[in-house]
Write a structure and sequence with these properties.
Blueprint (H helix, E strand, L loop, with lengths): L1 E6 L2 E7 L39 E5 L5 E5 L15 H9 L4 E6 L9 E21 L4 E22 L4 E10 L4 E10 L4 E8 L4 E10 L5 E10 L4 E10 L5 E10 L5 E10 L7 E10 L5 E10 L6 E9 L3 H8 L5 H19 L3 H15 L3 H8 L5
Parallel strand pairs: 5-6, 6-7, 7-8, 7-9, 8-10, 9-11, 10-12, 11-13, 12-14, 13-15, 14-16, 15-17, 16-18
Antiparallel strand pairs: 1-2, 3-6, 4-5
Length: 389
Protein backbone atom coordinates (compact mmCIF):
# COMPACT_ATOMS: atom_id res chain seq x y z
CA UNK A 1 0.00 0.00 0.00
CA UNK A 2 1.26 3.45 -0.89
CA UNK A 3 -0.10 6.82 0.17
CA UNK A 4 0.74 9.93 -1.88
CA UNK A 5 0.19 13.47 -0.62
CA UNK A 6 -0.02 16.52 -2.84
CA UNK A 7 1.99 19.38 -1.38
CA UNK A 8 3.69 22.40 -2.88
CA UNK A 9 5.75 21.24 -5.84
CA UNK A 10 3.58 18.25 -6.70
CA UNK A 11 2.72 14.79 -5.35
CA UNK A 12 5.09 13.26 -2.81
CA UNK A 13 5.04 9.63 -1.68
CA UNK A 14 5.02 9.66 2.11
CA UNK A 15 3.92 6.22 3.21
CA UNK A 16 4.38 2.70 1.89
CA UNK A 17 3.89 -0.59 3.71
CA UNK A 18 4.85 -4.09 2.63
CA UNK A 19 6.42 -7.35 3.77
CA UNK A 20 8.43 -7.53 0.51
CA UNK A 21 11.94 -6.05 0.51
CA UNK A 22 11.65 -5.49 -3.26
CA UNK A 23 9.17 -2.71 -2.48
CA UNK A 24 11.91 -0.79 -0.65
CA UNK A 25 14.99 -0.20 -2.83
CA UNK A 26 18.24 0.73 -1.14
CA UNK A 27 17.79 4.45 -0.33
CA UNK A 28 20.09 7.09 -1.78
CA UNK A 29 19.17 9.90 0.60
CA UNK A 30 17.11 11.77 -1.98
CA UNK A 31 13.87 10.02 -1.04
CA UNK A 32 11.37 12.02 1.00
CA UNK A 33 11.41 9.52 3.87
CA UNK A 34 15.24 9.33 4.01
CA UNK A 35 16.37 12.83 3.07
CA UNK A 36 17.16 13.88 6.65
CA UNK A 37 18.83 10.63 7.74
CA UNK A 38 22.65 10.28 7.61
CA UNK A 39 22.70 6.96 5.74
CA UNK A 40 26.42 6.44 6.27
CA UNK A 41 25.71 5.89 9.96
CA UNK A 42 23.31 3.01 9.23
CA UNK A 43 26.05 0.54 8.28
CA UNK A 44 24.66 -3.01 8.24
CA UNK A 45 21.03 -1.99 8.77
CA UNK A 46 20.10 -1.22 5.16
CA UNK A 47 21.84 -4.14 3.47
CA UNK A 48 22.69 -6.66 6.20
CA UNK A 49 21.81 -10.31 6.68
CA UNK A 50 21.17 -12.49 9.74
CA UNK A 51 23.40 -11.73 12.70
CA UNK A 52 24.47 -13.47 15.89
CA UNK A 53 23.94 -10.23 17.79
CA UNK A 54 21.42 -10.31 20.63
CA UNK A 55 20.14 -7.95 23.29
CA UNK A 56 20.01 -8.92 26.95
CA UNK A 57 16.49 -9.12 28.35
CA UNK A 58 15.09 -8.54 31.84
CA UNK A 59 11.41 -8.12 32.66
CA UNK A 60 8.99 -7.24 35.44
CA UNK A 61 5.63 -8.72 34.54
CA UNK A 62 2.53 -8.35 36.72
CA UNK A 63 0.27 -11.33 37.31
CA UNK A 64 -1.69 -12.33 34.23
CA UNK A 65 0.75 -10.86 31.69
CA UNK A 66 2.53 -13.52 29.63
CA UNK A 67 5.76 -13.36 27.61
CA UNK A 68 6.10 -16.00 24.90
CA UNK A 69 8.03 -16.61 21.69
CA UNK A 70 6.59 -17.18 18.22
CA UNK A 71 8.94 -18.96 15.83
CA UNK A 72 10.05 -17.54 12.51
CA UNK A 73 7.64 -18.46 9.71
CA UNK A 74 4.57 -18.62 11.96
CA UNK A 75 1.57 -17.13 10.06
CA UNK A 76 0.81 -15.01 13.14
CA UNK A 77 3.83 -12.85 12.26
CA UNK A 78 2.06 -11.74 9.06
CA UNK A 79 -1.02 -10.57 10.95
CA UNK A 80 0.76 -7.51 12.38
CA UNK A 81 1.04 -4.03 10.81
CA UNK A 82 3.31 -4.16 7.77
CA UNK A 83 6.80 -2.62 7.84
CA UNK A 84 7.08 0.85 6.33
CA UNK A 85 10.71 0.93 5.23
CA UNK A 86 13.62 -1.25 4.13
CA UNK A 87 15.02 -1.64 7.65
CA UNK A 88 11.68 -2.94 8.90
CA UNK A 89 11.39 -5.60 6.19
CA UNK A 90 14.98 -6.72 6.79
CA UNK A 91 14.27 -6.88 10.51
CA UNK A 92 11.45 -9.38 10.01
CA UNK A 93 13.48 -11.38 7.49
CA UNK A 94 16.60 -11.50 9.66
CA UNK A 95 14.97 -12.02 13.06
CA UNK A 96 15.67 -15.75 12.89
CA UNK A 97 14.41 -16.27 16.45
CA UNK A 98 10.95 -15.10 15.39
CA UNK A 99 9.25 -12.65 17.74
CA UNK A 100 8.80 -12.12 21.45
CA UNK A 101 5.11 -11.62 22.28
CA UNK A 102 3.78 -9.90 25.39
CA UNK A 103 0.15 -10.97 25.82
CA UNK A 104 -2.44 -9.37 28.05
CA UNK A 105 -5.67 -11.41 28.19
CA UNK A 106 -9.08 -9.93 27.51
CA UNK A 107 -10.61 -7.91 30.36
CA UNK A 108 -7.37 -7.99 32.39
CA UNK A 109 -6.37 -4.95 34.45
CA UNK A 110 -2.86 -5.61 35.86
CA UNK A 111 -2.09 -3.65 39.00
CA UNK A 112 1.42 -2.64 37.88
CA UNK A 113 3.13 -1.81 34.58
CA UNK A 114 4.74 -4.55 32.51
CA UNK A 115 8.40 -3.61 32.06
CA UNK A 116 10.78 -4.92 29.39
CA UNK A 117 14.44 -3.89 29.54
CA UNK A 118 16.61 -4.43 26.46
CA UNK A 119 20.36 -3.90 26.83
CA UNK A 120 23.02 -3.96 24.12
CA UNK A 121 26.36 -5.62 24.77
CA UNK A 122 28.44 -4.27 21.90
CA UNK A 123 28.42 -2.92 18.38
CA UNK A 124 26.96 -5.98 16.61
CA UNK A 125 23.87 -5.63 14.44
CA UNK A 126 20.78 -6.92 16.24
CA UNK A 127 17.43 -7.65 14.56
CA UNK A 128 14.46 -7.81 16.92
CA UNK A 129 10.69 -8.16 16.67
CA UNK A 130 8.48 -7.54 19.70
CA UNK A 131 4.68 -7.84 19.64
CA UNK A 132 2.32 -6.39 22.23
CA UNK A 133 -1.00 -8.24 21.98
CA UNK A 134 -3.57 -6.53 24.20
CA UNK A 135 -6.86 -8.42 24.54
CA UNK A 136 -10.30 -6.86 24.23
CA UNK A 137 -11.31 -4.53 27.08
CA UNK A 138 -7.98 -4.96 28.89
CA UNK A 139 -6.24 -2.01 30.54
CA UNK A 140 -2.47 -2.08 30.94
CA UNK A 141 0.71 0.01 31.01
CA UNK A 142 3.84 -1.24 29.23
CA UNK A 143 7.33 0.28 29.56
CA UNK A 144 10.16 -0.70 27.18
CA UNK A 145 13.62 0.57 28.13
CA UNK A 146 16.72 0.47 25.89
CA UNK A 147 20.27 0.86 27.19
CA UNK A 148 23.86 -0.14 26.44
CA UNK A 149 25.51 -0.25 23.04
CA UNK A 150 24.20 -1.93 19.89
CA UNK A 151 23.21 -1.41 16.28
CA UNK A 152 19.59 -2.33 16.76
CA UNK A 153 16.89 -2.66 14.10
CA UNK A 154 13.51 -3.24 15.70
CA UNK A 155 9.90 -3.86 14.75
CA UNK A 156 7.43 -3.22 17.57
CA UNK A 157 3.95 -4.44 16.61
CA UNK A 158 1.17 -3.14 18.85
CA UNK A 159 -2.25 -4.82 18.62
CA UNK A 160 -4.90 -3.21 20.83
CA UNK A 161 -8.16 -5.15 20.92
CA UNK A 162 -11.68 -3.74 20.87
CA UNK A 163 -12.34 -1.55 23.91
CA UNK A 164 -8.81 -2.03 25.30
CA UNK A 165 -6.66 0.75 26.75
CA UNK A 166 -2.86 0.70 26.48
CA UNK A 167 -0.39 3.15 27.97
CA UNK A 168 2.96 2.59 26.23
CA UNK A 169 6.27 4.24 27.15
CA UNK A 170 9.47 3.61 25.18
CA UNK A 171 12.75 4.96 26.59
CA UNK A 172 15.84 5.24 24.40
CA UNK A 173 18.65 5.60 26.95
CA UNK A 174 21.43 4.15 24.79
CA UNK A 175 25.17 4.73 25.15
CA UNK A 176 26.61 7.46 22.94
CA UNK A 177 27.75 5.06 20.16
CA UNK A 178 24.47 3.16 19.71
CA UNK A 179 22.30 3.16 16.58
CA UNK A 180 18.59 2.35 16.86
CA UNK A 181 16.18 2.25 13.91
CA UNK A 182 12.63 1.13 14.65
CA UNK A 183 9.10 0.99 13.30
CA UNK A 184 6.31 0.91 15.87
CA UNK A 185 3.13 -0.21 14.12
CA UNK A 186 -0.06 0.39 16.13
CA UNK A 187 -3.40 -1.17 15.22
CA UNK A 188 -6.43 -0.02 17.22
CA UNK A 189 -9.67 -1.95 17.46
CA UNK A 190 -13.16 -0.51 17.84
CA UNK A 191 -13.31 1.92 20.80
CA UNK A 192 -9.69 1.06 21.68
CA UNK A 193 -7.17 3.64 22.87
CA UNK A 194 -3.43 4.08 23.16
CA UNK A 195 -1.36 6.70 24.94
CA UNK A 196 2.15 6.30 23.52
CA UNK A 197 5.17 8.27 24.76
CA UNK A 198 8.63 8.12 23.15
CA UNK A 199 11.55 9.32 25.30
CA UNK A 200 14.83 9.70 23.38
CA UNK A 201 17.96 10.84 25.21
CA UNK A 202 20.90 8.64 24.22
CA UNK A 203 22.45 7.09 21.15
CA UNK A 204 24.51 8.28 18.23
CA UNK A 205 21.56 7.91 15.84
CA UNK A 206 17.95 7.09 16.73
CA UNK A 207 15.30 6.92 13.99
CA UNK A 208 11.75 6.04 15.02
CA UNK A 209 8.75 5.66 12.72
CA UNK A 210 5.40 5.23 14.47
CA UNK A 211 2.24 4.42 12.51
CA UNK A 212 -1.37 4.16 13.65
CA UNK A 213 -4.21 2.39 11.86
CA UNK A 214 -7.85 2.07 12.96
CA UNK A 215 -9.98 -1.02 12.36
CA UNK A 216 -13.26 0.40 13.65
CA UNK A 217 -14.96 3.53 14.96
CA UNK A 218 -14.17 5.07 18.33
CA UNK A 219 -10.39 4.57 18.26
CA UNK A 220 -8.30 7.10 20.19
CA UNK A 221 -4.54 7.65 19.76
CA UNK A 222 -2.62 10.02 22.03
CA UNK A 223 0.98 10.18 20.74
CA UNK A 224 3.66 12.08 22.64
CA UNK A 225 7.42 12.41 22.49
CA UNK A 226 10.28 14.01 24.40
CA UNK A 227 13.84 14.23 23.09
CA UNK A 228 17.08 16.01 23.97
CA UNK A 229 19.86 15.96 21.36
CA UNK A 230 23.46 16.69 22.33
CA UNK A 231 26.49 17.45 20.14
CA UNK A 232 26.68 15.14 17.12
CA UNK A 233 23.49 13.23 17.92
CA UNK A 234 20.84 12.58 15.26
CA UNK A 235 17.34 11.94 16.60
CA UNK A 236 14.52 11.42 14.12
CA UNK A 237 10.84 10.80 14.88
CA UNK A 238 8.30 10.19 12.13
CA UNK A 239 4.59 9.53 12.54
CA UNK A 240 1.85 8.45 10.15
CA UNK A 241 -1.73 8.38 11.47
CA UNK A 242 -4.10 6.76 8.98
CA UNK A 243 -7.68 7.75 9.75
CA UNK A 244 -9.68 5.22 7.76
CA UNK A 245 -12.56 4.60 10.18
CA UNK A 246 -15.24 7.08 11.29
CA UNK A 247 -15.41 8.88 14.63
CA UNK A 248 -11.80 8.32 15.64
CA UNK A 249 -9.40 10.72 17.32
CA UNK A 250 -5.66 11.38 17.31
CA UNK A 251 -3.56 13.93 19.13
CA UNK A 252 0.21 14.27 18.68
CA UNK A 253 2.49 16.34 20.94
CA UNK A 254 6.28 16.13 20.53
CA UNK A 255 8.78 18.39 22.30
CA UNK A 256 12.53 18.52 21.88
CA UNK A 257 15.59 20.43 23.02
CA UNK A 258 18.93 20.73 21.22
CA UNK A 259 22.35 21.65 22.54
CA UNK A 260 25.89 21.26 21.22
CA UNK A 261 27.56 21.49 17.83
CA UNK A 262 25.94 19.25 15.23
CA UNK A 263 22.93 18.22 17.33
CA UNK A 264 20.17 17.40 14.81
CA UNK A 265 16.54 16.50 15.40
CA UNK A 266 13.87 15.62 12.85
CA UNK A 267 10.14 15.42 13.43
CA UNK A 268 7.76 14.53 10.60
CA UNK A 269 4.05 14.23 11.35
CA UNK A 270 1.79 12.81 8.62
CA UNK A 271 -1.97 12.54 9.10
CA UNK A 272 -4.33 11.19 6.43
CA UNK A 273 -8.10 11.53 6.87
CA UNK A 274 -9.72 9.27 4.30
CA UNK A 275 -13.12 9.85 2.72
CA UNK A 276 -14.58 7.10 4.93
CA UNK A 277 -13.34 8.73 8.17
CA UNK A 278 -16.21 11.09 8.88
CA UNK A 279 -16.24 12.54 12.38
CA UNK A 280 -12.45 12.52 12.72
CA UNK A 281 -10.84 14.80 15.31
CA UNK A 282 -7.06 15.24 14.95
CA UNK A 283 -4.32 17.66 15.92
CA UNK A 284 -0.52 17.47 15.88
CA UNK A 285 2.09 19.76 17.42
CA UNK A 286 5.87 19.84 17.50
CA UNK A 287 7.88 22.33 19.55
CA UNK A 288 11.67 22.58 19.62
CA UNK A 289 13.80 24.59 22.04
CA UNK A 290 17.26 25.57 20.76
CA UNK A 291 19.68 25.87 23.68
CA UNK A 292 22.96 26.61 21.84
CA UNK A 293 24.30 27.62 18.46
CA UNK A 294 25.32 24.96 15.92
CA UNK A 295 22.16 22.86 16.14
CA UNK A 296 19.49 22.01 13.56
CA UNK A 297 15.83 21.13 14.06
CA UNK A 298 13.71 20.02 11.10
CA UNK A 299 9.95 19.95 11.68
CA UNK A 300 7.54 18.90 8.92
CA UNK A 301 3.79 18.53 9.58
CA UNK A 302 1.61 17.13 6.78
CA UNK A 303 -2.19 16.92 6.81
CA UNK A 304 -4.32 15.42 3.99
CA UNK A 305 -8.11 15.61 4.30
CA UNK A 306 -10.40 13.72 1.91
CA UNK A 307 -13.73 14.52 3.60
CA UNK A 308 -15.25 17.72 4.92
CA UNK A 309 -17.33 15.87 7.51
CA UNK A 310 -14.85 16.11 10.38
CA UNK A 311 -14.85 17.47 13.92
CA UNK A 312 -11.51 19.19 13.56
CA UNK A 313 -8.01 18.94 12.09
CA UNK A 314 -4.93 21.06 12.52
CA UNK A 315 -1.22 21.22 13.19
CA UNK A 316 1.42 23.52 14.64
CA UNK A 317 5.21 23.62 14.61
CA UNK A 318 7.60 26.01 16.37
CA UNK A 319 11.37 26.16 16.79
CA UNK A 320 13.02 28.89 18.83
CA UNK A 321 15.29 29.94 21.65
CA UNK A 322 14.47 30.74 25.27
CA UNK A 323 11.62 33.11 26.00
CA UNK A 324 13.44 36.26 27.16
CA UNK A 325 10.43 37.36 29.20
CA UNK A 326 10.43 34.11 31.17
CA UNK A 327 14.16 34.38 31.84
CA UNK A 328 13.81 38.04 32.90
CA UNK A 329 10.93 37.19 35.23
CA UNK A 330 12.97 34.51 37.00
CA UNK A 331 16.19 36.51 37.16
CA UNK A 332 14.31 39.49 38.58
CA UNK A 333 13.47 37.29 41.55
CA UNK A 334 17.08 36.51 42.34
CA UNK A 335 17.48 33.32 40.31
CA UNK A 336 20.75 33.00 38.36
CA UNK A 337 20.63 32.90 34.57
CA UNK A 338 21.88 29.30 34.49
CA UNK A 339 19.28 28.11 36.98
CA UNK A 340 16.56 30.12 35.20
CA UNK A 341 17.36 28.34 31.95
CA UNK A 342 17.15 24.97 33.67
CA UNK A 343 13.76 25.85 35.15
CA UNK A 344 12.41 26.95 31.78
CA UNK A 345 13.48 23.70 30.09
CA UNK A 346 12.16 21.60 32.95
CA UNK A 347 8.81 23.38 32.65
CA UNK A 348 8.88 22.90 28.88
CA UNK A 349 8.88 19.11 29.34
CA UNK A 350 6.95 18.81 32.60
CA UNK A 351 3.47 18.39 31.11
CA UNK A 352 4.52 15.43 28.94
CA UNK A 353 6.36 13.74 31.80
CA UNK A 354 3.50 14.02 34.28
CA UNK A 355 1.07 12.48 31.79
CA UNK A 356 3.06 9.23 31.87
CA UNK A 357 1.45 8.41 35.20
CA UNK A 358 4.25 6.12 36.45
CA UNK A 359 5.85 7.99 39.40
CA UNK A 360 9.18 6.13 39.50
CA UNK A 361 9.77 6.60 35.78
CA UNK A 362 8.72 10.25 35.96
CA UNK A 363 11.27 10.90 38.73
CA UNK A 364 14.03 9.24 36.73
CA UNK A 365 13.19 11.24 33.62
CA UNK A 366 13.27 14.52 35.54
CA UNK A 367 16.66 13.56 36.98
CA UNK A 368 17.91 12.70 33.50
CA UNK A 369 16.79 16.06 32.13
CA UNK A 370 18.61 17.83 34.98
CA UNK A 371 21.78 15.90 34.13
CA UNK A 372 21.45 16.70 30.43
CA UNK A 373 21.07 20.40 31.12
CA UNK A 374 24.08 20.24 33.41
CA UNK A 375 26.22 18.99 30.53
CA UNK A 376 26.40 15.41 31.84
CA UNK A 377 24.81 13.17 29.16
CA UNK A 378 26.33 10.01 30.64
CA UNK A 379 24.81 10.83 34.02
CA UNK A 380 21.50 11.43 32.26
CA UNK A 381 21.59 7.92 30.77
CA UNK A 382 22.41 6.43 34.15
CA UNK A 383 19.51 8.31 35.72
CA UNK A 384 16.95 7.05 33.24
CA UNK A 385 17.94 3.37 33.06
CA UNK A 386 16.19 1.08 35.49
CA UNK A 387 19.25 -0.78 36.75
CA UNK A 388 20.75 2.47 38.02
CA UNK A 389 17.55 3.86 39.51
Amino acid sequence: MTETYTIEGGPVELHRSSFDVADFPLPTGREEDWRFTPLDRLRGLLDGGPSDGRLSWTTDLPEGVELTTVGAGDPYLRSVPKPVDRVGVLTLANATDGAVVLRVPANAEPSAPAVIRLAGNGGDVVWGHVILDIGANAQVSVVIEHSGSARYAGELSVLVGDGAKLKLVSVQGWDSDAVHVQHTGVRLGKDASIASTQITLGGDLVRFVETVEYTGPGGDAEMAGLYIADAGQHQEHRLFVDHSAPKCRSNVTYKGALQGEGAHTVWVGDVLIRATAEGTDTYEMNRNLVLTDGTRADSVPNLEIETGEIVGAGHASTTGRFDDEQLFYLQARGISEEEARRLVVRGFFAELIHKIGIPDLQDRLLAAIEAELGGEPEAAISAVTEENA
